[in-house]
Design a protein that fits this description.
2 domains; 18 strands; 5 helices; single chain; globular; Glutaconate Coenzyme A-transferase; 32% strand; two-stranded antiparallel ribbon; alpha+beta
Length: 208
């Protein structure tokens, strides 16, 4: 698995926070326009992006919130041509606090704002277009996992320690499809000390 970022890094391990866009031990640096040409040409096997607002059709908004316009940046260029897209982020916004203990996740302080809304403020990623083009789309949060279907968002996994009605459905503006095969998220994720990611990736071949 080779990681890249839109700033032009290839390989290595990404740096987070204010140094985002840099990485440790990269294989090479590309000019940003070259990196985006590769992205737009479908070069990525999978894309992992942030999750702000999502609605029942699987649309994602990361570009406009009320009167505040952030713009999409490279979000559209990355998501449109990539066949597997994974959105990652907290389930709620605004001072959410969680803790991992005894193999489960616990909500210490619930967030103030819902991120799974009836209709996003702006469509930065179109769920309908993704369905039409055959993209595989997932939405991963700390407490549950959704996947996009032609009927809308389907809840497929729930974290240990999370109550479906109280912690998930009560904090959404719409009711998702509930998978008849609803599973628990891998309990190994919720250990206080966690490792073995390489073995998990290799055993499940998760990014191919």
């Amino acid at each position: 698995m080779t990681l890249t970022s839109e700033s032009g890094t290839v390989g290595g391990v990404a740096i987070t926070g204010k140094a985002f866009g840099n990485c440790w031990n990269p294989e090479c640096f590309l000019d940003e326009d070259v990196q985006f040409t590769w992205y737009c040409g479908g070069g990525l096997g999978a894309a992992f992006l942030g999750l702000a607002e999502t609605d029942v059709r699987g649309n994602v908004n990361v570009s406009k919130f009320g009167p505040k316009f952030n713009g999409p940046g490279g979000f559209i260029d990355i998501t449109q041509p990539t066949k597997k897209v994974i959105f990652c982020g907290a389930f709620m916004a605004g001072k959410l606090q969680t803790e991992v203990k005894d193999g489960a996740i616990h909500i210490v302080n619930e967030g103030k704002f819902k991120k799974f809304v009836a209709q996003v403020g702006q469509v930065t990623f179109s769920g309908d277009y993704a369905v039409e083009s055959g993209q595989q789309v997932m939405y991963i949060t700390e407490r549950c996992v959704f996947k996009l279907t032609d009927k809308g968002l389907m809840l497929t996994e729930i974290a240990p320690g999370i109550d479906l009605d109280k912690d998930i459905l009560a904090n959404m503006d719409f009711k998702p499809i509930i998978s008849p095969d609803l599973k628990k998220m891998d309990p190994a994720i919720f250990q206080e000390e966690w490792g073995g990611l390489k073995d998990i990736i290799e055993s499940r071949n998760c990014c191919n």
